[in-house]
Amino acid sequence: MSAGSNEGLSRRGFLAISAATLGGVMLAPGIRLIEIAAARAPDQPASGKVRWGLLIDTNKCEPGCDDCVTACATENGIKSTGHPRTDSQWIRKVELKDMRSGRTHSLPVMCQHCAEPPCVDVCPTGASFKRADGIVLVDRHICIGCRYCIMACPYKARSFVHQEISDQNPDVPRGKGCVEGCTLCVHRVDRNQQPACVEACTKAGHNAMIFGDLNDPHSEIAQRVAKYASTQIRADLRLDPGVHYQGL
Amino acid sequence: MAESLAYRQLSGPPARFWALLAALAVPLALGAAAYFYMEHNGHIVTGMDNQIVWGMPHVFAVFMIVAASGALNVASTASVFGKTAYKPIAPLSALLAVSLLVGGLTVLVLDLGRSDRLIVAMTHYNFKSIFTLNVFLYNGFIIFCAAYLWTMLERRMNRYAKAVGMGAFIWRLMLTTGTGSIFGFLVARQAYDTAILAPMFVVYSFAYGTAIFILLLLAACRWDGQPIADALLARLKNLLGVFVAASLYFVTVYHLTKLYMTRYDDLERFILVDGGVYTLLFWVGQVLLGGILPLILLFHPRTPRRGIVAACALVVLGGLAQMYVTIIGGQAYPQILFPGMIESSSFFDGVIHPYTPSLPEVLLGLGGMALAASIVAVALRALALLPARLDQVAGSQA
């Protein structure tokens, strides 16, 4: 009897597993298709309706944790050459201490993807440019390496490549003599993925970084920015950075 | 008047001239070697880094570009303001202006991360960039100076000299305004971000350009053993004195402006009090050696010619110190991202950035100066640009 019921259960179990597997096999490509459909096709221009941005909650950002920095370096093929003063840093952890109250903060700083980027204003060739969706990039084909954008950036967000680079990530071409900076992982964003730093922060369980469309009122980032007080670095310059900070 | 407008080439035996060119070839070759070394290895071999991105080449380049527009002063004074005493030396002034500009631009271009992409800079324009505007201002200046030389030297074109001279004068004011605005329009750094840098650079250019011009004039005349009227030299030195005094005035206003605004107190403390090499270069280099001492030498009633030469050389050295303080000092002071907070990071936030100029950078800069000198030397030998006589001053009432 018991043997029979065991046999029945296992048959039922087998059927359930089979159904789940079959369903999975049938649905997965569909889900993948939805993902691909949501991602931007290579021949489609970036949409001006979107404003990609980041919200960084400094209360959640763990002092001493630099998972976002490590993830950025891995994703973009940035390696230390043993020359910290000339090495590129697309994202860095900044430790702050209030001079009066002594309150401390730890937060990542990267290209702030300004709506009015000074780097784009000063670039003589137009190599520094802002995509319609708010991502500020450097066109490596026409950057002449004048470094005027580094002089103009209020966030110290750009780096100049001081020497030959090898073992590059094919998605992220870099080159000696050009200026570079955080791309908001544009190659991932165009595939409907999150920037590497955000993914790493979530994976570490801190959830201090949210990426999304600031123009979409239904997005988590837009709702959080609408609900809670947040600031932008050097807001006095009125460059309208796409990176917002909460808790500062 | 007419006889004073006869021009001649640089004379002297060929061997002496070739020796001069050979001497200039040394810094030129070293500058070229420095460029190829930097180009091959990248800027890692310079003293520049991601904190100080504009180094010694910019100090030389900006100095020469600013001096270039000022070198045209003498020509402008002759044609635009009708001071006939300067007419015989006006072509030399235009030649020096073009040469200094070419020297400065060469250094600037060879310091680019991708100097091989110069053609890109000439074909892709972002008209909101001051650099782009400057590309047109620089090229236009060279064209204006060439046209100006033509109208001065070709008798049939003489009647247009005043109009072209006026155009060149206005253009040179725009050019130096553009150079000053490269820094003045940068909101990101405390040392810049002020419109006064534009007129300040214009006044600096008057001083640097006139000083270099007097040195060149004396050198060219000494080469040929040609006498210069004391009256002419006295006018030139007084003109330089006024420009040096005006430069000091602008420096004072610049620092008072920054000092008055509380948010710049820390930067001013850095430059004026505890900035180490920058404080030293400011007070000793720019103010004392480049300002006060030349003023004393230039306005002292019994200054010998050697004193005038010393004053001009001091203005040049002071100008280089000034550029070092402005360009390097302005970057050495950290950018304040979070006012009221103490910042620290692996990217050197919140700390003074050190900078030591490397040999290739200095050689590149000196190479640019040698290039300017070479152009002047070859042009003076090949073209009749020097006045036949300078021992009498015309229009002494002016």
Residue stretches of chain A low in confidence (pLDDT < 50, at least 5 long) are: 1-5
Structural category of chain B: mainly alpha
Task: Give the helix tally of chain B.
Answer: 13
- Low-confidence spans of chain B: none
Binned, the helix content of chain A reads 25-40%
Cα gyration radius of chain B (Å): 21 Å
Order of helices and strands of chain A: HEHEEHEEHEEHHEHE
Determine and state the CATH class of chain B.
Mainly Alpha
Q: What is the architecture of chain B at the second tier of CATH?
A: Up-down Bundle
Q: What would the average pLDDT of chain A be, to the nearest integer?
A: 90
Largest beta sheet: strand ordering of chain A: 8-1-9
Quote the distance from N terminus to C terminus of chain A.
68 Å
Task: Write up this protein.
The complex is a heterodimer of chains A (about 250) and B (about 400). Chain A is an alpha+beta fold. Chain A has 2 domains: about 1-40; about 50-245, Alpha-Beta Plaits (2-Layer Sandwich). Chain A has 7 helices and 9 strands. Chain A has helices spanning about 1-40, 65-75, 120, 150, 185-190, 195-205, 220-225, and strands at about 50-55, 90-100, 105-110, 130, 135-140, 160, 180, 210-215, 245. In chain A, strand 2 (about 90-100) and strand 3 (about 105-110) form a beta hairpin. Chain A starts with a helix and ends with a strand. A two-stranded antiparallel sheet of chain B has the order 1-3. Chain B has a single domain (about 5-335, about 350-385), classed as Formate dehydrogenase/DMSO reductase fold (Up-down Bundle). Chain B is globular. Chain B starts with 6 loop residues before the first strand and ends in an 11-residue tail after the last strand. Chain B has 13 helices and 3 strands, in the order E-H-H-H-H-H-H-H-H-H-H-H-H-E-H-E. Chains A and B meet through strand 2, helix 3 and helix 4 of A and helix 5, helix 6 and strand 2 of B.
